[in-house]
Amino acid sequence: MAQFTQKETGGLYELTDEARVLLAGSKYFNDDLAPTSVSQRTWTTYHIASLWIGMSICIPSFTMASSLVSLGLSPWLAVFNVALGNLIILIPMQLNSHAGTKYGIPFPVFARMTFGSIGAHIPSLSRALTACGWCAVQAWIGGAAIVTMIAVFAPSFGGMTAAPFIGFGLFLVLTLWISLNGSEGIKWMEALGAPILAVLSVALFIWAIVIGSNAGFSFGDILNATTDPDIVAANGGFVYVFLAGLTANIAFWATMALNIPDFSRYAKSQKAQFNGQLLGMPTAMAFTAFVGAFFAQSTKLALGEAIFDPTAVLPLIGSPIIAFVTAVGVIIATLTTNIAANVVAPANGFSNISPTRISYKMGVWITVVLAIFYRPWWIFGGAGAYIFGWLSTYGGILAPVAAIFVADYYVVKKRKIDVMALFQGKEGRYWYSSGWNIRAIIAWVCGFILPTLGNFGVPSLHWIAANGYIFGFIVGFIVYVLLMKKDMASFVTDEEANAMTMVK
Questions:
Q1: CA dihedral sign of residues 204, 210, 214, 220
Q2: Structure letter (DSSP) for residue 461
Q3: CA distance 374 to 361
Q4: End-to-end CA separation in angstroms for the chain
Q5: CB count, 10 Å around CB of 239?
Q6: Exposure string over 105-116, b if 16+ CB within 10 A, otherwise e
Q7: How far apart are CA 93 and CA 249, in angstroms?
Q8: Could you give the CA distance from residue 434 to residue 437 in angstroms, rounded to a whole number?
């Protein structure tokens, strides 16, 4: 290994020019997966907070609380559930962000350190395929807004059976076009979109107040509504609904807890990424939860049914101008989340399969095409399928992956990475056994198998499934550390880290 393969400036590491030349011919290296240079790390606290505000203020975020209201919880309990779940998922997210900022590496490359150069396909593709499903859901939501916009000028279009599918396709095309502009286009879209999204949320809140007032219910009536015992009992009881909702809220950002290095690699400093996420995500999610819960309770009192999808009320807006403007806001809100959370990660994940053949742009194309084959009309067809089916299932599968990353980076590798070795394949220290770290795979399976069986109808595992993310995270963390205990001393030492790093 050549000396000085990486250089350090103020706690941020980058590959030396010599190392980049040596890696140019590696099949595990391309420009899209290459570590960012220090000069490329331009995202400030504001940019990262804006990213999270843009991702958080979207229709699915509103539905996290509104779906719990529709399952019988009171508005305040629903908001508390969302807030608690997001504070919990912020912990592994912040922990996994550190490596991205320190070393400038994207998620698929970060995964090589833990699962091996080939084994990294398992976490990156698991996250990528989940994101494709979310991309489909978001496109279905954004497509509904496009239908509303078109229906303002051509009312008959809104009643066509094919209209939702046309809107779905048009939104995917728009997602594709913006995504192909790369990270800088995403950064500025998030920064400009965040204030618009805040206004949209306030407008939805005001609409919920008005519709409740028109039906004879005061602000206090809506806000202070209590848990409905009959509805809660029909959905499994209070404890089960609350815990399953908590797991779903944790799982909501389970994908981002894995691929957060895709974004933190552009942060100017650890302080910028830490504060940006701390300010941007929990506050924005708590705000959308409050609006979503209030909206659901208002529709429950005024219309007789708690509507968990705010786009369902777009056709009820009497003014064509207001309907049009609102639809534009929904489209912006959905785009900012969809591109940042559901396109960048799978694009990088697909690129990681064959870096010399699949570029980031080709990965974007693959993501959008695969989204067509999901069934968002089922995933987003009701609160039960959304909470108990979609979110709980994939959350339980991804939880141990996040835990294994945290355990490997902080406990096993002690935050020391040989960045060049991540791109060297069998010549690097992270090749493990034929490119696979079997112990990581064992820990992953141990973490997700019981929650997944519980979600697919094994009665004795019912409660494990309801706590699937926390259960899977703890099991995955413990099993991985135990399996890797004997090899902890074989990775980068302090002396070796100093020998390979040039301090600027």
A1: positive
A2: G
A3: 21
A4: 20
A5: 11
A6: bbbbbbbbbbbb
A7: 14
A8: 9
Which pTM was predicted? Answer: 0.84
Distance in angstroms (rounded) separating the CA atoms of residues 388 and 86? 18
Q: Are the CB atoms for 447 and 473 separated by under 8 Å?
A: yes
The answer to whether the CB of 327 falls within 8 A of the CB of 109 is no
Number of CB atoms found within 10 A of residue 320's CB = 13
Dump pLDDT digits (tens) for 280-306.
999 989 999 999 999 999 988 888 888
Q: Side chain identity at 124, as an amino acid letter?
A: S
Q: What is the per-residue pLDDT across 22-65, written as a single tens digit (0 to 9) for each?
A: 888 788 888 878 999 999 999 999 999 988 887 888 778 888 89
Give the type of residue at 282.
Answer: P
Selected from 3.60.15.10, 2.60.40.3230, 1.10.460.10, 1.10.4160.10, the CATH number assigned to the domain covering 6-503 reads 1.10.4160.10
CA atoms within 13 A on the CB side of 299: 22
What is the Cα–Cα distance from 419 to 496, expressed in whole angstroms? 13
**Tokens 């995403």 label which residue?**
186
CA quadruple 379, 302, 320, 161: dihedral, nearest 10: 40
The domain locations on the chain are 6-503
What is the C-alpha to C-alpha distance for residues 236 and 244, in angstroms, rounded to an integer?
A: 10
Residue 301 to residue 263: CA distance in whole angstroms: 42
Is the Cβ–Cβ distance between 183 and 209 less than 8 Å? no
Distance, CA of 272 to CA of 45 (rounded, Å):
4
Quick check: 102 and 35 in contact, CB under 8 A? Answer: no
**Half-sphere exposure for 442 (CA within 13 Å, toward CB):** 10
Cα distance between residue 397 and residue 387, in whole Å? 15
